[in-house]
Design a protein that fits this description.
Blueprint lengths: L6 E5 L4 H12 L3 E6 L6 H4 L7 H14 L4 E5 L5 H15 L4 E4 L14 H29 L2 E6 L12 H20 L5 E8 L5 H9 L7 H12 L8 H13 L7 E4 L6
Parallel strand pairs: 1-2, 1-4, 2-3, 4-5, 5-6, 6-7
This protein binds nicotinamide-adenine-dinucleotide.
Nicotinamide-adenine-dinucleotide binds next to helix 1, helix 5 and helix 7.
Length: about 270
């Protein structure tokens, strides 16, 4: 229970990596705000697949954690909208009185070669991943400065350290997250606020299920494509898990003297 009494917010906190992080922070004793949005410019909608609903998932997770005795709320917030992000932070402070840790997991991906990318593709991914990080971190920082400290953890990617063919716009957005993280860490160094990023390799969430379909070779199933890509991209030859990401988040949440870092949890993909 190393986060006993701390207040944490997790954006995209009802699904995938964010869900794993939320569950771990709850286990560690944090009081929790699980943040999500049902209206997404995500690849899922564009492909006609089922919209899993980030806020619906956040509410369901909050309900089950609450039944287990966790002090938790679900908050609806589209991270691309400044007003909603500010209301989200204000709502957390109104409910819990403060905010010690913000883990910003919300993000989207689409896969297309640059020659086929539309302006809409570019704007949608850059707006969610890069602008969303700016808005969430800005609102979190303002509150943490008032309190005299805090921790901000963003989610970048191995694609934020190396350019990957077929997802150039996503790579650009995740490079942006790392640059922003470093710059903000410097700005907040005297405010006792650390700002870091986690860079996952491959975690088998809904996001990668969609990518596996996009990256499938003719005749290959989604699962075969997923396994082939793990083999090709991850030197350890196996995917990472939501728990691996939660472990990195815990390390950063407990480290007062680590700031401005982008930590890869990627089975050796970036070194
Ligand atoms: N899965 C991987 O292998 C992998 C690898 C590298 C980086 N990442 C990053 O990790 C983070 C989590 O991804 P994931 O794999 O868990 O996928 P995911 O699709 O399960 O999670 C993304 C979450 O972001 C939310 N979201 C999207 N747009 C939003 C918006 N405008 N406002 C609020 N919420 C919004 C979605 O509802 C969802 O809950 C993302 O930033 C992703 O880019 C994932």
């Amino acid at each position: 229970m190393r986060l006993q009494g701390k207040v944490a917010a997790v954006t995209g906190g009802g699904t995938g990596i964010g869900k794993g992080v939320s569950q771990r922070l709850a286990l560690e004793g944090a009081r929790l705000a699980i943040v999500g949005a049902d209206v997404l410019s995500s690849a899922f909608n564009q492909k006609g697949a089922k919209n899993v609903g980030g806020f619906t998932a956040a509410r369901e997770l909050a309900k089950s954690l609450s039944e287990g005795g966790v002090s938790v709320i679900a908050i609806e917030c589209d991270v691309t909208k400044k007003g909603q992000v500010e209301s989200m932070i204000n709502g957390i402070v109104a409910h819990f009185g403060r905010i010690d840790l913000v883990v910003h997991c919300a993000g989207v991906i689409t896969a297309k070669k640059v020659v086929d990318l539309t302006e809409e593709d570019w704007d949608s991914v850059m707006t969610t991943n890069a602008k969303g990080t700016f808005l969430v971190d800005q609102a979190a920082a303002a509150q943490m400065m008032k309190q005299g400290g805090g921790k901000i953890i963003n989610f970048s990617s191995i694609a934020g350290k190396t350019g990957y063919a077929g997802i150039a716009h996503y790579s650009a957005s995740k490079f942006a997250v790392i640059g922003f993280t470093e710059a903000l860490a410097k700005e907040l160094i005297q405010d006792h606020i650390t700002v870091n990023a986690v860079c996952p390799g491959i975690v088998g969430t809904q996001m990668w299920k969609m990518l596996a379909r996009d990256f499938a070779l003719p005749g290959e199933s989604d699962e075969q494509s997923y396994q082939r890509n793990v083999g090709a991209m991850i030197p350890q030859g196996e995917p990472q898990t939501e728990e691996d990401m939660a472990e990195a988040v815990m390390f950063l949440a407990l480290s007062d003297h680590v700031t401005g870092q982008a930590i890869s949890v990627d089975g050796g993909a970036c070194m």
